Amino acid sequence: MQLNRPFATVTPTLDGDVLAVLASADVPFTIGQVRRILTHASGEGIRKVLNRLTSQGVVQHDEVGRTHTYRLNTEHLAAEPIMALSRLNSTFLSRLEQHLDRWGSTLRYAAVFGSAATGRMRLDSDIDLFLVRAAGSGDDVDDVWEQRLTELARLVTAWTGNDGRIVEYTEGEFHAAAAAGEPLFDDVSKQGLTVAGTRAWFNAQLRSARRS
To answer: Which range is the signal sequence, renumbered to this chain (predicted)?
Structure first.
């Protein structure tokens, strides 16, 4: 799936993209405003979709003078599933946070990065996860960690249909790579979506390693 196009999971048509726009805010939109967001669509195509959705009662159409506005009818029976679909990205991140919270202090930091974080996913995109593991381990801890990584990758695929690509570092490896100027860390710092730990911790560790 494409987290940035949640309605594409159920419909490949323009209808889904238009519904995603209307569900993004409880405000009226003009056709021009929708088109500025959906740059790949024509104004006429958007108008036809809005008229079709209006006839189904899912969209409310108002006319003030020569201005036509459209908004999602939040009282419609279909509004709840439409809103749920529109929130797939945040639902995915919440599930990740809840799952990783059970890992306890072994996990110092985790973030989603790459196209899933920047909104540029293709249908076949991987979902990239960055993890920093706390210092100190033994054979038993290592085995549990590997099992958790395997299960995490499985869950990401089960939830989304996309392959989960996990990039992991121990704290020591993270500091060494940061000191060497690993460019991936800049991407995580600037665009990553934190799902475990805090961005403040990550950035502080990154600055400390690079100063040293």
So the answer is: none
Task: Give residue 167's pLDDT.
Answer: 97
CA distance linking residue 108 with residue 179, whole number of Å: 18
The Cα–Cα gap between 207 and 179 comes to 9
Is pTM beyond 0.85 here? yes
Domain range annotation of the chain: 6-85, 88-211
d(CA 114, CA 187): 8
First-to-last alpha carbon distance for the chain, in angstroms, is 42
Q: Which of the four CATH numbers 3.30.1490.100, 1.10.10.10, 2.30.30.60, 3.40.50.720 does domain 6-85 have?
A: 1.10.10.10
Question: What does the pLDDT look like over 72-105, one tens digit per residue?
Answer: 999 999 999 999 999 999 999 999 999 999 999 9
Point out the residues of the chain with pLDDT beneath 50. Answer: 139
Structure confidence at residue 140 (pLDDT):
59
**DSSP string over 110-128:** EEEETHHHHT---TT--EE
C-alpha closest to that of 158 among 132, 130, 127, 192: 127
The distance of Cα 160 from the centroid of its chain, to the nearest Å, equals: 11
> By the 8 A CB rule, do 59 and 72 touch?
yes
Q: What angle do CA 154, 156, 157 make, to 5 degrees?
A: 65
Q: Looking at this protein, which amino acid is placed at residue 187?
A: D
The amino acid at residue 23 is A
Task: Report CA Rg, the chain.
Answer: 21
